[in-house]
Specification:
This protein is of the alpha+beta class. It has one domain: Nuclear Transport Factor 2, Chain: A (Roll). It has a four-stranded antiparallel sheet with strand order 3-4-5-6, covered by helices on one side. It has a two-stranded antiparallel ribbon with strand order 1-2. The longest helix has 12 residues. The protein is globular, with a radius of gyration of 16 Å.
Length: about 140
C-alpha cells in the first residue's frame, strides 16, 4: 500500500509504520460518497452507545458475526464503560470495507473503580457493507 503522510504545522512527514492505523488511506483510493453514508450510519450508533442500549447497538453489528459474538457477550464487553462523549476523527471507505476513527471519553462501570476519572480512548472501528448496508465488523 502507499506510504501514508501527515501534515504537522504545515509540513508533511511520512507516518511511522507503527502509527499507520491512526491515519486514513490516501484520498485518491477512497470512496467519498460511501464515506458519507458510513459516517451517517456510524452517527446513528452514538445515542445508543451513550444510553447503554447494547441491544440497539448490536443491531449495527454484522449479522454474519452474531453466531460467534452473541448479544450477551457483546453487551458484557460494551458495558464495561459508560460513554460520555465522542469525537469522530475520520471515516475511510475502500470497496465494501470501512474504518471509523473515533475518540471516546468514557468511565469504567465497575463499582470498585467508579472514582477513576474519565479517560480518552482513540480506536478504529472496522465496518463492512452487507446487502448495501453498513455494519460494524466484530471479528
Amino acid at each position: 500500500m502507499d506510504q501514508k503522510w501527515a501534515a504537522h504545522r504545515g509540513d508533511w512527514f511520512p507516518v511511522p509504520p507503527q502509527q499507520t492505523d491512526s491515519y486514513p488511506a490516501p484520498p485518491a483510493i477512497r470512496d467519498k460518497a460511501a464515506e458519507a453514508k458510513l459516517k451517517s450510519r456510524f452517527s446513528q450508533t452514538w445515542p445508543l452507545r451513550k444510553a447503554g442500549d447494547w441491544s440497539g447497538l448490536y443491531d449495527f453489528a454484522d449479522p454474519r458475526d452474531r453466531d460467534a459474538v452473541p448479544l450477551t457477550e457483546f453487551a458484557d464487553s460494551e458495558g464495561l464503560f459508560a460513554y460520555r462523549s465522542q469525537d469522530l476523527k475520520w471515516v475511510e471507505v475502500i470497496g465494501d470495507k470501512g474504518k471509523v476513527r473515533v475518540v471516546y471519553v468514557h468511565t469504567v462501570t465497575d463499582p470498585s473503580l467508579t472514582k477513576l476519572p474519565p479517560r480518552e480512548a482513540e480506536i478504529t472501528e472496522n465496518w463492512i457493507k452487507v446487502n448495501n448496508e453498513w455494519y460494524r465488523d466484530l471479528k
